[in-house]
Amino acid sequence: MANSNSSRSGSVPSPARYGFTDASRAEAQLRRAGWWSDRGPEEAEPIVTALSRTPDPDLALHSLDRLRDAADAGWAELSRALADDSGLRARLFGVLGASTAFADHLVAHPDDWQRLRSDASPVSTLEERTSVLLAAVGAEGSGAPGTPGGPVAAVDGPDAVSALRRAYRGLLMDVAGQDMAGVVDPSLPAMSYEDVAATLSDVAVAALRAALSVAVAELKRSGVDEVPRLAVIAMGKCGGRELNYVSDVDVVFVAAQEADIPAATRLASLMMRVAGPAFFEVDAALRPEGKAGALVRTLDGHLSYYRRWARTWEFQALLKARPVAGDAELGADYLAAVQPLVWTAAEREGFVADVRSMRRRVEDHVPSELSERELKLGRGGLRDVEFAVQLLQMVHGRSDDSLRLTSTMDALRALGEGGYVARTDAADLVDSYRFLRTVEHRLQLRQLRRTHLFPAFDDGDALGVLARAVGLRSTGRNTAAQALVAEFRRHSSRVRRLHEKLFYRPLLEAVAKVPTAALRLTTSAAVERLAALGYTSPEGALRHIGALTSGVSRRASIQGTLLPMLLDLLANTPDPDGGLLAYRKVSEALAETPWYLRLLRDEGVVAERLAQLLGTSKLVPELLVRAPEVLRLLSDTPALAERDPMEASISLRSTVARYSEPARAAAAARSLRRHELLRIACGDLLGLVEPTAVFQALSNIWVAVLESALDVSIRDTAKSSGDVPARIAVIGMGRLGGAELGYGSDADVMFVCEPVDGADETTAVRFATTVVEQVRRLLGAPSQDPPLEVDIDLRPEGRQGALVRTLDSYLSYYRRWGEVWEAQALLRARHVAGDQDLGERFCRAVDPIRYPEGGLDETKAREIRRIKARVDSERLPRGADPATHTKLGRGGLADVEWTLQLLQLQHAHEHPGLRTTSTLDGLRAATEAGVLDAGDADELAQAWTLAMRVRNAVMLVRGKPGDQLPKQTRELNAVAAALGYPAEVDTGEVVDDYLRVTRHARAVVERVFYGS
Q1: Cofactors per UniProt (predicted)?
Q2: Could you give all domains of the chain from N- to C-terminal order, each with its CATH number?
């Protein structure tokens, strides 16, 4: 249909100007109502303007059009009232523009618009609302419904349900009208979220009482003359007077005595059966034993259960318990009896762990594709606020009665006023909680259905309507939608961020100022809290926290802000106590570093990652106090974990090259190595770097240090003679040659020299020896860093041999005196530093020795096996467990490496792919060459990689090298965390995994290496 205004003068307004998306239909509906002419709305301008301010003008007008048809003769009165009564316009249009359900109610009951008039007699108290609902079913009588002598409904069955449903919807509409009026007309008094939630809760309580009066009538008609004493206890949001428009109402039923239970159970069941179709579902699942338990128990029955069997979440639920219907005296007795149990629940063993576990289960319940939009259960949702507040109430409400409140908002304010939470944080959470609950209310108003799901972020229409419903307005619907999404994300993010801080803030406030009456938290309470979090020495932790937060300096203030979150994060690590001590040491060492605390405060990911590192590793904090700049990288994953190893090596060499003095050059090399070592360790522990990349990076940085030390030593030694008479190359051996170093590995090397033109061999060797001695002295100097041991024991003649030889000398030795184990050692030889041409010529020259033509004869193969057996029996440390020794144990590094090296000696002469110094590359090449079964190669590679990772993990955890899988539980937990196991893994599983993998590898070794 064409727009009816399309041919008119531009001065005639279009309904689109008023926010109607279907301008033609809107104009037709407005004309039928008498509010539009050829000149526009004219004197009906206030009505059309009010419609335009509703959340959904099209829905409001369409619903009004339906109401016009339904009202028939009454439409004239309604139309006049809308023209004269701005309050009615705001309330009625607000309801119609927000809710199809209330539109349906008004169409079914057209006269109910009258209750939204400004001069209508307000129904404002619980008693008045209860009277309205009782009158709907003709209930008369004094006293409380559901008690002897109380009002009994005159009707029951479907007639009672129908009457109650209509009256209840009318009361709900009263609330919705007041709630939405301020959206349509900002000049009217706004009804706050707290008032809306409290009023909805009162309406629900009135409904429960009315349902009870109908249930009593049905009970009496079934032949029960005496009404049993029954108390109805509201739980959840109804108990806290913070109910939604649509929600189940959680209750618990209490009978006065055992003899009353059959009749009381019948009465409770009847009440639930009436309330369901008339109002809302009454959920009694929070009763003892849940749905499997008795619907009604006596007070003693409840207490017996709570004292013996109740779990933590049941006491948490009781925080909001409130007698609302039935026998008031019995309800008061119930509340008085269970309150002491609630306020001692935090003393239960595993209390905090239970609450945290429940929080995880709640989050896990949300489908991943909906988690970002889930208002109630998702991250940054309502449950985050409620769980945190309830936990803090239960911990600190034991000694502070002011925290014993049922409302989340009231409890938050009390926590802020009492000093348990910073006032600004409490105010921010109140603001965000109010926003999220308001959004929830507006979503539920639409169809009066229970929902907590924010609209899809690309649903512009739904978002625009919701934005206007919560009071966000703009010049265009899309803009309002974008503003709403931004607000939603801002509040969700703030809730999640403050949730962690709030969870522990009271403890930190107390620790900083104990003892003070204002905070009402004793030292013993703080100790209990820390113990509940998992700190094995809470008194020690308390001292660390006190030292960090004492005083009035800015540093202490920022620490007081950071520590609540860090305590929580550290509690999730293998060693919370050690992590907190490490954090104190790092903080004290970096006390004068101006950006340190600001970085932790402003970059949440830095604090999270730092806590994980400190609670797992002793090596990281030792390095961190001397390389604090690495902290900045914790917020930049690519810079932390994706740096090219060659880039780091080049940077180190170029920096050290600027120094001519050996000691300063060595110090610079150590500093840069420390930085890289810490960077690699952080990336490794955080699971951001693959194991093979860790081995390569550690090897490259060692090579760069060697290169730098060699360069500065050559320059320094040449000062005395004025020239450089020799070329020097460094040959990497062992794991350095294979680029497979760990955090605590030595550097196995050999030094080869060659006279330059015009120099004699003796002078060249003497010069090179002086250089090598200086390299070893510089790198081997005492240091707090992991040692830089240059091991040259693999040279000809071992420790008795010359430090440096010429290439010809090496070849002469190997050809005349070399033993099979030396040929085996040369399999790992590669040039790593110094003169590249010389180093590569050395490697080519020893190829015939390490890759013997014709392979390895059986005699030499037996010799290798004999040596290996001797190593297994003699070199394993006393007391070591061969099953879990990563280097010399069964299926460990030596087993895998010797097996590969035997295959290389036997077959590399005819399979060039086997001529590699890398263990993993060699295993792949052996498979490709057909000398090793692919499955066997996989078993060996898996065992070798795991053993290397365990060695590295032990070094990271202990801060010193170790080849044995730890037996002590705490260390084993930390090793498991370093290996990437989830926090809840059983340490036995870690050991079992290692034993399984290495057992399979050992079987391959027995078959391939020993020929068994």
Answers
A1: Mg(2+)
A2: 347-503 (1.20.120.330), 637-850 (3.30.460.10), 858-1008 (1.20.120.330)
